[in-house]
Task: structure prediction
Amino acid sequence: MLPIRKTMRTSLVTMMMLAFLCVSCSNNQRPEKKTSDTVPQLLIYCGITMVSPMMEIAKIIEQEKNCKIKLTYGGSLHLKKSIEINQKGDLYFPGNDSFLTSMVEDKTVIDTVQVGHNKAIIMVPKGNPRHISNDLNSFTNSDYSVVIGAQKSGSIGRETKKIFQAMGIYEDVLANAVYLTTDSKGLSKAIRNQDADMVINWKAAAFLDENRPLIDVIAIDEQYAKKRNLVLGMLKYTKHKEIVARFMEYASSPTGQEIFKRFGFLD
Result:
């Protein structure tokens, strides 16, 4: 009898320990699954010049709406192609509203709001050591090192082509360029690295912390460089319309506009 009681007692203890472990595992896993399921994840495609104000607004909306917002950034045309291929995401914010036109027409973008504007300028090293003027014909002068944004990748490249085509000198500028770069970040870097005496870039790029101490800005005549609207576009792929709408509302509110103004996107 004694051996049997001992065996039964051992089995009972073993069963209780297994039950305790199962409960512990269940309790440990449940909160993690709940957190993963309940926190919305948003994806914003953002032109590289506008990253700083968008990150600032994203942090505010994350706290307000208990969500996570990821920004993927680069040249506006590259971002547009990514949206077309991936068919996912919540917001598209190109450096020029012309990138949104076809997307509104085919209903890939289902809502829009204007939040600021871009304007092209001539960017030179701090102190303007080569004494560059606002004469755009200087970009065809081989005495100067020139870097140009590629018109097939970013909004500033597209704008640059429009400016020089209006003057009838685009091909001459291309022939004089040391190299072409994909976006405004590459143009700013060309000045900082002394690859170029001058570039055409977006004005707001000069407000970035890494550029402010090293770069000066020369205005371009409004006849050639017009203000280009900055517009947020809600993508049809979003699963979080209420949060996206709140982001757009905040970005266009007086508080949001102060953020964009601080980064050079409003006068």
Observations:
- The longest strand covers residues 109-118.
